[in-house]
Amino acid sequence: MPRHTDSQNSPAPDNTACENTSAGEKFVYLIRQLFTVVIIPGIIIAGGVIGAKKLIDSGPKAERRERKHHAPLVEVTAITPTHETIIVHAMGTVIPSKRIHLTPQVSGRIIEIDDQLEPGGHFVKGQKMLQIDPSDYKLAVDEKMAQIEQVQADYRIEEGQQAIAKQEYELLGQSVSEQDQDLILRKPQLQTIAAKLKVAQSQLEQAKLDLDRTTVNAPFNALVIDRNVNIGSHVSTGSALTELVGTDTYWVQVSIPVDQLKWITFPSKSNPKGSKVKVYNEAAWGSQTYRMGHVVRLSGSLEEEGRMAQLIVAVDDPIAINSDAPPLLLDSYVRVEIIGTELQNVYRIPRTALQHGDQLHLFKDGKLDIRDITIVHRGPMDVLVSAGLNRDDMLVTSDISAPVNQMPLRTESMSKLARGDEEVKPVADTVKPDKASEQ
Q: pLDDT per residue over 152-167, tens digit each?
């Protein structure tokens, strides 16, 4: 008979109950996580927010104020009309007023040369420069003198022959024509000898002149530029001995715009000298040293390239032989200031103050006054204004970023007044001095 074990008789386990127990534990776990991660921190944050709001609400409240727009701070300077002399600025080149290549008038061998006859040497007018061998020319003079003595002797002999012929004619007592009488009295023979005497005298004068020309003298006060001969050189008429330039006056050839000619005075019968001119050579003399000159003439044509007018400025004693002034060097490129006409009641304004070419910013009653002006002359640093301004107008010299006509402006003195400073100076006392440089 088979035996039944306990396992066969015991009841089977309840799977549904186990599943219910596991689900409950998970739910409890999720609830705990929710409280720990979400609810509790949320409560803390909410409490903090509520507490902060109470603190903010319980503090003093700031009053809302409208933002103030400050007027731009500017610098101003008072302007007044003055009498101004127009200065025309230009550049020029130094050229000689006289330049020659000296040539001899006779031929021969050079036997003597002055020590100054070299580049840079100076000669005064009439000073001996070199000597051509005069031997042949002295002989020519002696020969011509001998010829004259011979002709003079022939003349005296013929005078004697004429006296004898006259006596013979009178003894004959014959009446003849005037023409035959001249032949009888030998008048044509005497006239021929007289003509020969004149020729001989002329030839003597020419020989003496050629002898004098063997000594070559300076034709004017001169500076030697170049020398082409030495002792022993044989020269002929037309040979270049030396190059000379005159030292009494140098010229400066200046180019200026045509519209600047109206300010310059040119020589006339009533005024032999034109406008005065200052000549600067900063590279050689520095910026403060200059030589004085004067305008002598206007060239008859314009430059081909720049269409500029050309005028000539004369500078006397350019190499300073008679003074301690700095020498003016040929071919130097120099700056010139031509002192032109004088203008009455004009305003000198710095170029930096110009707005849009022909406008100015003025300070008037605490506001910006954008003023149109009339400019009569423009210089490198300043302009001269003839219309559009009034005496003691206040010129704005500082920049305004976005200028609008009649916009409010303020000066340093106004700022001090607004801050309540004890000592406040009027606007005129805070004006910057006008540092406009000479035109």
A: 888 888 778 777 777 7
Residue 399 and residue 359 share a domain: yes
Reference 97, options 335, 336, 328, 337; nearest CA is: 328
Per the CB < 8 A criterion, the answer to whether 74 and 411 are in contact is yes
Question: What is the rounded (10 degree) CA torsion for 310, 313, 314, 315?
Answer: -140
pTM of the prediction?
Answer: 0.66
Q: Which residue has the tokens 């300070």?
A: 363
Q: Which two tokens stand for residue 156?
A: 């005296």
C-alpha pair distances (Å), 374 with each of 77, 79, 297, 347, 419: 19, 15, 31, 10, 39
d(CA 55, CA 123): 107
Q: Could you tell me the end-to-end alpha-carbon distance of the chain, in angstroms, rounded to an integer?
A: 147
State the total domains in the chain.
4
CB 156, CB 250: distance < 8 Å = no
The pLDDT of 219-246, averaged and rounded, is 95
From the list 16, 40, 75, the residue with the least C-alpha distance to 400 is 75
Q: Which residue has the tokens 């310059």?
A: 264
Cα 424 to the center of its chain, rounded Å? 47
Cα 38 to Cα 27, 30, 46: the distances in Å are 16, 11, 12
Q: Is there a contact between 114 and 229 (Cβ–Cβ < 8 Å)?
A: no
Residue 110, domain extent: 104-132+217-247
Q: Domain check: are 233 and 254 in the same one?
A: no
Tell me: do 297 and 347 sit in the same domain: no
Is residue 128 predicted with pLDDT exceeding 70?
yes
Q: What is the pLDDT of residues 64-101, one digit of tens each?
A: 666 556 788 888 888 889 898 999 999 999 999 999 99
